[in-house]
Write a structure and sequence with these properties.
The complex is a heterodimer of chains A (390) and B (330).
Chain A: H1 3-13, E1 26-31, E2 38-42, H2 47-57, E3 61-69, H3 77-80, E4 82-85, E5 87-92, H4 104-125, E6 133-137, E7 142-147, H5 157-168, H6 174-177, E8 178-184, E9 196-202, H7 208-225, H8 229-237, H9 244-253, H10 256-263, E10 266-268, H11 273-284, E11 303-305, E12 319-321, H12 331-334, E13 342-347, E14 351-355, E15 358-362, E16 365-370, H13 371-379, E17 383-385
Antiparallel strand pairs in A: 1-2, 1-3, 3-4, 3-11, 5-7, 6-7, 6-12, 8-9, 9-10, 13-16, 13-17, 14-15
Chain B: H1 7-12, H2 17-25, H3 30-35, H4 40-56, H5 67-87, H6 90-108, H7 113-122, E1 127-128, E2 131-133, H8 134-140, E3 155-156, E4 159-160, H9 164-184, H10 190-195, H11 197-211, H12 226-237, H13 243-255, H14 260-267, H15 275-286, H16 299-304, H17 320-329
Helix pairs in contact in B: 4-5, 4-6, 5-11, 6-9, 7-9, 12-13, 14-15
The chains are: A alpha+beta (390), B mainly alpha (330).
Chain lengths: 390, 330
């Protein structure tokens, strides 16, 4: 038995698996060590049955279906008979724009920020209670959020798509959010329509994206106003389509009174409003997926990692995260399950990592490290076990 | 749900449970409704309902001045339904359901909010001062239309804040679904076909062209541009396609002459395939249900939607239809 499998086996002996609601209606799937195929269409009728399976197979990856079925063990969707599905959001470092340049730890910090944004959408806009949204560290490079409110269970993928679009700001139409009004210029009334200026207004009492954009604008303008002139202009001209002249005008016009008007939704002529609003929107939206792959959420028959199970490529536990304590959650401490008995390994690439609040700086070659780090490095293929001669 | 003496409201919304109860409680048997001279007016109005639906896509409102008007109006609805069922045309069922729903909408948008709330309740839609819950909203809102997309809506604490006429619009959709669902399972008594024979024959001949599927003239997928190819493949595989993707695919297939049913077949692999809903969406986009035919989006639009995977030929065209035409001309 290889090193990882042995360790996983030991873990599953006393595993603390967190069973999903309606757990006997779910499909389970497993990937075993040294195998490339996924064992699918499994169903379990009791906790003991599942525990026995985990213990005897010590799988590298454990999944369950977000959907629940009449016959979860049937091989085809038709025979399974779909009954409903949780709403699941998958936030993964790979979906972040600068993912490649970040270290494992940095990437996870960034994903956590996205998760905070997502939760604000789910709580404030969609009105889910804190106890209806559960956050899990995925064991890999991300976090999952499970929504179990009964009203979402029967949503079809088209409806789920709308929720995703909302959270990602996809299809957001600024002209639905702002009201443009043409006002005849004073004294020019006799020329009729030709001499008018357009004013832009946002309804400050509105919720949804309207509120988010208005608040975002106010925060942005306030930040700009408190900057030194040159810094402010530099910041503004970074925005596509805003030149020096527009930037100077904008900066010069940001008085207390002006900001107070903006807070009331009066953007006036709002030079460059749309130019500012577009990058702002991108910032406010949640980056849920890369462009190519389909979001988990709209897939009503998707498999997700079972909370409490181990991730075969890190050895970390899929761990529930307390929403109020998210700030302090450190996956490389709170999702670690193995002990610190020393293990001899050979490192193939220099590593610098803080795990269990200890910082390790390891060069290529032989090293002796605590078991938890050995599991992590071997699972990530950053090291191999040193075979002892005895 | 209605004020029990207010027959006018029952007559205006004859598809409601309460209106049906009223008709039932009158204990008039079908034979009398179909032949007794007393109900002649109701029969005329019943025929008119269906004709108006067919010709103009909406059932006209009639003045409801006295009790007699209301009673005739109430009886005309089950008669109209029997006629629709007797014609045995899916097209007519859809068209009629929409026409009745539109009629209801016209009246509904002028009703007081309390009444709208009560009617919404009949369809399981809960409305209160906060608006309607987003899950109900998503069930009935025509979200392929930018204006109705959830992202462009005032969503607060789970509720979509809507204007009066917008709630009425959602209820219209709920009514349409209900009427259509009921008609799909309704069989007309044989005497209906006899009594209304002339009308039924006329209606059949006018829907014949709509119901018959003209042969698709050789749609060759080989000639599809890459964006459409990948959308069609995704639809066939039952993978989820973004809204804009479905929209693009449907407008394209429609533009090259594919019929609704053939487009439907393409989508039928989707895990949450709902034939009626998909059909309605397709017919909305292709203009059969709405009167507006949407154009196939241009290449640069498709590009901004992230659906563009250009090949060599793509570089020389600006519209997916040009691509198709060019390839098929060769």
């Amino acid at each position: 038995m290889n090193f990882l499998k042995k360790r996983f086996h030991r873990y599953y002996l006393h595993s603390r698996i967190l069973l999903p609601e309606r757990f006997e209606r779910r499909e389970y799937a497993f990937m075993l060590f040294d195998e490339d195929t996924m064992h699918r269409h499994m169903a379990f009728s009791s906790r003991e049955q599942l525990s026995r399976y985990l213990h005897s197979h010590a799988p590298a990856h454990v999944y369950y279906s977000s959907a629940y079925y009449r016959t979860p063990s049937a091989a085809t969707m038709r025979e399974k008979q779909w009954m409903g599905a949780d709403l699941i959001f998958d936030l993964d470092a790979d979906h972040l724009p600068q993912a490649e340049q970040l270290s494992y730890t940095e990437a996870l910090v960034e994903v956590k920020k996205e998760m905070q944004k997502l939760l604000s959408f789910l709580h404030d806009d969609f009105g889910f209670g804190k106890n209806e949204t559960r956050v899990y560290f995925s064991g890999g490079r991300g976090y999952h959020c499970h929504v179990s409110h009964k009203a979402v269970l029967s949503l079809g993928s088209q409806e789920r798509r709308e929720i995703i679009d909302y959270i990602m700001g996809r299809g957001l139409d600024l002209s639905e959010i702002v009201r443009e009004r043409s006002i005849p210029r004073e004294g020019d009334a006799r020329y009729g329509q030709r001499f008018t200026h357009k004013t832009i207004e946002i309804d400050p009492s509105s919720g949804g994206w309207t509120r988010r954009i208005l608040e975002g604008l106010v925060a942005f303008y306030e930040r700009i106003r408190h900057m030194e002139r040159e810094d402010a202009i530099r910041e503004l001209t970074k925005i596509e389509g805003i030149g020096r002249k527009t930037a100077e005008e904008l900066y010069g016009g940001l008085t207390d009174e002006r900001i107070a008007r903006i807070k009331r939704g009066k953007l006036d002529q709002a030079t460059g409003f749309k130019r500012i609003a577009i990058p702002l929107m991108k910032n406010l939206a949640v980056s849920l997926t890369g462009e190519a792959d389909e979001p988990v959420t709209t897939d009503i028959k998707r498999l997700i990692r079972l909370p409490g199970s181990l991730h075969g490529k890190t050895g970390l536990r899929v761990t529930p995260v307390d929403i109020d304590g998210m700030e302090g959650f450190d996956p490389l401490r709170d999702a670690v399950v193995f002990g610190d008995e020393p293990v001899k390994i050979i490192i193939n690439k220099p590593v610098e990592i803080t795990m269990n609040e200890q910082t390790f700086k390891l060069e290529k070659g032989d090293a002796e490290v605590p078991e938890y780090l050995a599991v992590f490095l071997v699972a990530r293929r950053n090291a191999v076990i040193k075979k002892s001669m005895e | 749900m209605f004020n029990s003496v207010d027959l006018t409201q029952l007559a205006r919304y004859p598809f409601t449970t309460e209106a049906k109860e009223w008709v039932k409680n009158e204990k008039v048997n079908t034979a009398d409704i179909l032949s007794d001279a007393v109900y002649e007016r109701a029969r005329m109005r019943g025929i008119a309902r269906v004709h108006q639906a067919l010709k103009r896509g909406i059932v006209d409102e009639v003045p409801l001045l006295g009790e007699a008007d209301c009673i005739m109006e109430l009886f005309s609805y089950p008669i109209a339904r029997m006629i629709v069922a007797a014609v045995e045309s899916e097209y007519l069922i859809r068209r009629y359901a929409l026409a009745e729903a539109k009629k209801a909408y016209t009246a509904l948008k002028n009703e007081p909010p309390e009444f709208i709330s009560i009617l919404a309740g009949e369809f399981g839609i809960t409305t209160d001062h906060r608006g309607i819950h987003f899950t109900d909203y998503l069930k009935y809102a025509p979200t392929w239309d930018t204006k109705w997309k959830l992202v462009n809506r005032n969503l607060q604490h789970g509720y979509v804040v809507l204007q009066h006429h917008e709630i009425a619009r959602l209820i219209q959709e709920a009514i349409r679904e209900k009427i259509q669902r009921e008609l799909a399972n309704l069989f007309a008594p044989p005497e209906v076909k006899r009594i209304f024979r002339d009308d039924i024959v006329a209606m059949r001949s006018s829907v014949a062209s709509k119901d018959r599927r003209p042969k698709i003239e050789e749609v060759n997928e080989e000639y599809f541009p890459p964006c459409i190819k990948s959308l069609a493949a995704a639809a066939r595989a039952g993978t989820n396609i973004p809204h804009v993707g479905r929209f693009t695919l449907v407008t394209f297939l429609h533009a090259i002459g594919m019929e609704t049913d053939d487009i439907l077949k393409l989508f039928s692999a989707s895990p949450d395939f709902n034939m009626e809903k998909t059909r309605y969406q397709i017919e909305h986009i292709t203009g059969k249900a709405s009167g507006t035919t949407y154009a196939v989006p241009r290449c640069d639009t498709i590009l901004t939607w992230g659906l563009c995977y250009p090949d060599q030929l793509c570089k020389t065209v600006r519209h997916p239809l040009f691509y198709y035409r060019r390839r098929s001309r060769r």
